[in-house]
Amino acid sequence: MAPSSGSTVAAVAAPLPRAEFQPGALAPYTGAARRRSRRVREAVIAGVLRVCAFSAVAGLLLIVVFVLREAMPVLFDAATRKEASLRAYFATSMWQPVGDIPKYGILPLLVGTLKVVVAAMTFAIPVGVMAAVFASEFAPARIREMLKPAVEMLAGIPSVVLGFFALIVMASWVQSVTGAHSRLNAVNAGLALGLGIIPTIFTVSEDALRAVPRSYREASLALGASRWATAWHVTLPAAGAGVAAGILLGLARAVGETMIVLMASGNAAIVSGDLLDSVRTLSASIAAELAEVVVGSPHYSTLFFLGAVLFAATFIINVFAGLFVERLRKRLAGA
Amino acid sequence: MSVFGGRTRWPIVMTAMLALGGAFGCAGGRGGAMVTVKGSDTMVILGQRWAEAYMAGHPGTVIQVTGGGSGTGIAALINGTTDICMASRTMKDEERQSIQQRYGEPPHEILVARDGLTIYLHEENQVHELTLAQLKAIYTGRVTRWNQVGGASMPIIAYGRENSSGTYEYFKEHVLEKEDFAATVQTLPGTAAVVNAVSKDPHGIGYGGAAYLKGVRECAVKRDDASAGVLPSAENVRSGAYPISRGLFLYTRKAPAGAIAAFVEFALSDPGQALVTEVGYYPAR
C-alpha cells in the first residue's frame, strides 16, 4: 500500500477535536445519554454486520451438507450402487448416463477437465504474470492506470458471452491456426477460459508486486542491475508467494468454470491425450445434465458426486492460495 | 420414455402443482369440472398452454397438467388416475388390451400435433440427403468421413444435443434405435448452439428443432435407399412423409364427453392448433 493512503487512514482514525462533538443544536442531550445511544447504535450495526458475515458462512456450510447428502447414495445406497458406484465410474470409459444401459465412466470427464485446465493455465499464467510485471515495474503511471481497469473489465464479461464468442469466432481461428480436426476442442476452450482467469492472476500478482518495498528495487538498481534483471531476479521472487496465490486462485476458477467450457469445448466425452480433441469437463456435465435429471436417480446422485469432487478440488486449491498469501504477508512484514 | 420412467421438467411440474393448489382453493366451493391431463414430457408445455388458454375461456373448469413421461401417463390412464393421457408415441397392444379389459372399451386416440427433427448440414456440403441408416452410422461412429456417404473426402464432425433434452432421447430412440451415441459426438446446449456450430463448420452435421440460419442447410432424409429424400417442411411432417417425425397424441378411456370432450375439441380447434405452432411443433391438421 502506498504511504500516502496509510496517512489518510490515520487521519480518519485520530480523535476529532472535542469541540466538534458538542454543537449547540444538540444541547438538550446530556453527554451520557448521547454516549448511550451511540453505544446502542454501534452495537446494532455490529450485530447486523455479524449476521451478514455468518449468513455467508452458513450458506456455504448448508451447500456443502446438501451436496454431500445428495452424493451419498453413490457410496451407501445399494439400489444406486447397482448402476453408479466408484467401481462403476472406472469400469468403463464411456459417459452415456441416459439410455437402457446407462454408462457412468467418469474417466473422460476427469481427463477432459485436466486437459482444458492445462491449456488454460499454459496460456493464462505467462500472460497474466507478465502483464502484472509490466504494469507494476515498467509501465508509466498513465498507461498503468489505463491497463489495470481494462484487464479487470475483462473479468466483468459474463462467461456465457466469452463462451459464445469462443464458439462462433475464436473456434474458427483456432482451427485455422492449429489445423485441428474438430473446431471445438480443449485448446479453444482453454484459450477462452484463459481470458476468463487472466484478470484474477493479473490483479493478485500486480498487488503482490507493488507491495514489494521500494528499497528492494533501489538496492538492486544501485548495484547496477538492469530494470528487467531487477524485475525478474528481485521483485518477482520477493512477490513470489503472492503471484503463486494469484495463479492458484485462477486455477480454482478454471477448474470450476462452467459456461465457457460448455459452449467452447464440444463436450464430447473422449479419453485422449490430444489437446485438439473435443473434451467434456466435470462442470459442463453437471450444468448440462442436472436440470432435467430424475431427482434421486443414480444419474442425479452421480452428478452431485462429481460436484463434491469439484468442490473438494477448488477447496484444496483455495486453501493453498490462502497459505501462500499468508506467507507473502509474513515475509514482507519481516523485511 | 427413459428407463427412469421419464425425466421430469421440475419447473413445469412445480408450476402445475402451484396451479393445482390454486385450483383447490378457488374451484372447491363452486364445484366446477376438473380435468386431469398427464403424460409425455415432450407435451407438458403444450398441454400447459392449452390448459391456460382453455381455462381463460371456461372459468368454471380446472385443467391440471403434469408430466412424467408417456409411459407414466398411459399407466395413469389405465389405473384411472388421469382423465386424459398425453403420449408422444402410440399405445402398445398390451396397453390397449388392459384398457379394454378394465373398462370394456378400447382407448380413444386423438392425434393433436406432430413433432419433427431437422438434420442440418453446412451449406457447402455436397451431401443433400441421407438415409436413416446413414444417420445412424454417422451418430454411432461407424461412418466417420463424408466420402462414405457420397460427399467430399473430409471427416464428419457430428453435433448433437445434451442428454438432458427430449430431442436427444427422441433421436436415440428413433434414429439410433437405442444404440449409444459415439463418444466423439459433440453435444451443445440448445438448438441455437448446434445450428451455430454447424454453420461455422464445413464438416459438421447436427440435429434439432426447426431453425433457420445463414450457413446451414436442411438435409433431406430417406427412409431407406429405395425411397426419395424428404425435407422437413410443415406439410411433410404433418403428412408423416418425413421419416424423423412422430405423432403427439391425447388418449381417453372412452369417447370423450363433457369437459374432457370440450378440452380435446379446444386442442384441435384453430386457436389450439395455433398454440401447437407456437411451442415449436407442427399442427395435426
What does this structure look like?
The complex is a heterodimer of chains A (335) and B (285). Chain A has 335 residues and is mainly alpha-helical. Chain A has helices spanning 3-13, 31-71, 73-76, 78-83, 86-91, 107-138, 141-154, 159-178, 186-211, 214-222, 227-238, 240-256, 259-264, 282-289, 298-334, and strands at 95-96, 103-104. Chain A has a two-stranded antiparallel ribbon with strand order 1-2. In chain A, a hairpin with a 6-residue loop joins strand 1 and strand 2. In chain A, helix 8 (159-178) packs across helix 9 and helix 12 (240-256) packs antiparallel against helix 15. The longest helix of chain A is centred in the N-terminal third of the chain and has 41 residues, at 31-71. In chain B, helix 3 runs parallel beside helix 4 (93-103). Chain B is α/β, with parallel strands linked by helices and 285 residues long. The interface between A and B is large, with 38 and 35 residues.
Short synopsis of the structure:
Chain A has 335 residues and is mostly helical.
